[in-house]
Amino acid sequence: MSGEHRVLLIISGGIAAYKALEAIRRLRERGVAVRAIMTRGAQEFVTPLAVGALTGEKVFTELFDREDEQDVGHVRLAREAALVVVAPATADIMAKMAGGHADDLATAVLLATRSPILVAPAMNPAMWAHPATQRNVAMLAEDGVRFIGPRRGEMAEAGEAGFGRMAEPLEIVAAALDLIAAPVAEGGGRLLASRHAVVTSGPTVEAVDPVRYLANRSSGKQGHAIAAALAAEGAAVTLVSGPVTISDPPGVRVVHVESARDMLAAVEEALPADVAVMAAAVADWRPAKASRGKIKKDGSGKVEPLQLVENPDILATIGRHRTLRPTLLIGFAAETSDLIRNARAKLKAKGADWILANDVSEGSGVMGGDDNTVSLISATGVEAWPRMTKVEVATRLAERIAEALAGQSEAAE
Ligand SMILES: Cc1cc2nc3c(=O)[nH]c(=O)nc-3n(C[C@H](O)[C@H](O)[C@H](O)COP(=O)(O)O)c2cc1C
Known about the structure:
- By secondary structure, this protein is an alpha/beta fold.
- It folds into 2 domains: 6-181, Rossmann fold, CATH 3.40.50; 196-294 and 302-412, CoaB-like (Rossmann fold), CATH 3.40.50.10300.
- 35% of the residues lie in helices and 22% in strands.
- It has an 8-stranded mixed sheet with strand order 12-11-8-13-16-17-19-20, with helices on both faces. The chain has a 5-stranded parallel sheet with strand order 2-1-3-4-5, with helices on both faces.
- Helix 1 (17-29) links the parallel strand 1 (6-11) and strand 2 (33-38).
- The longest helix has 23 residues, at 390-412.
- It is elongated, with a radius of gyration of 24 Å.
- The relative contact order is 0.09.
- Flavin mononucleotide is lined by residues 12-16, 39, 41-42, 90-93, 122-123, 127.
- Residues 12-16, 39, 41-42, 90-93, 122-123, 127 line the site of flavin mononucleotide (FMN).
C-alpha cells in the first residue's frame, strides 16, 4: 500500500452507480488509492471496465474466484482497506448488512472488515421511507456504520421527489476523507463514543381546548439532524421531540411530547448528559386555562379574549440546574432582528455555553426549509458559518461538540 490510504468502494445496483465513477476520480485526485467491488446489480448500470479504468486496478466481482482467493480474497480485501465506502447503497445491500449476510463478495467483505464503513444510500423515496429500510438503517447506525445522505431532491427516475437521492460525490469524498483522518479509537474511531446527549426538536403545542392549540412553524429538521449526527459519532442520544411530521432519526431514543411543560419534564428525566442541544421551538406562552370542553360560538358575536401565561424556560431552567446541568449546554436563538445582539443576551440570561443564532425572518426560508445559516456564539466570540444544509450544520456541530468535550476531559485530567 506504500503508506497511502486505501478506500474500498463497494458499488451496488442502483441507478446512482454512475455517480460512483465521479467519486473515484475525486478520491484519486486527492491521493487516495481506490479499490472497487461491484455487486452483480451494479454491473447492470456501469461496467467493471469503466470502474477499473478509473481505479487503475482490477475490479472485484466474485466471491468464489479461484485466482482471487489465492491472491487477494475477501478477507484480505477487507483487511487492507482504511475505510469501506458503499456508494450507492441499495435498500437490498443495507438489508443484507443489517442481517449479517455474506452471500456475495460485497457482503462478505462488509462482514469481515474491521475498518470504518461509510454508506451512501440511494433509492426511490418510497423504498427509503419503508419501515423495513428505516429499521435496517437504525440497526446499522447502532452497529457503528456511518451514513451520508440520502438527500432530498429530484431522482434520476422521472417524476420522483423526496428523500432518497444519493449524496453528491464530493460530499461522499469529504466524509470519506474525514473518516480516514479521524484517529481510530475505542468505539470504532467515533468521536462521541460513551457520551450521552440530550436534544430537543420541533415545536411545542399548547392546548386551547381539546381540539385547538397554539403552535409554531418549526419542522424539527434541524434538531432531528443534530440528534442523528451525534448518534453517528457514537453518542447515546435521547431526542425529546414535539409533534413533527418527519420520521424519528435512526439509532436515537425518541421521547414524544406535546407541551413545553411535558418537554421540560422529559428533558429533566433524560439528564444527566455530557451535552444538551436545545433546538426545539418551545412556545413562550400557553393559554392560561385549557378548556375541558370544546369552546363554542354563543351566537352573540363576542369572543372571549385568550389569556396567556408564560411557559417554563427550558434552556434557562437546565442552565441554572445545580446537579443536572450538562457539561456543554447549547441553545438556539431564532430571531428576526438584531440576531447577534439578542443571541449574546440569551447566552448570558440562560446560562448556556453556546448559542446557535439563526435568522428566521420571512424570506430566510429557514422555518421548514432544508438549509440554515447560523452563527455560533460563545463567551469567546462569534463564528459565522456559511449557508449550508441542516444536515451539514448538524455534522459540523457534532464535530465541534466532540472537540469541546475532548478539551474539557483533557483539562480535567
Ligand atoms: C432500473 C433499476 C433501477 C434501480 N435502482 C435502484 C436504486 O436506486 N436503489 C435501490 O435500492 N435499488 C434499485 N434497484 C433495485 C436493485 O437493483 C435490486 O434490489 C438489486 O437486487 C440490488 O442488488 P445489490 O444490492 O446486490 O446490488 C433498481 C433496479 C432497476 C431494474
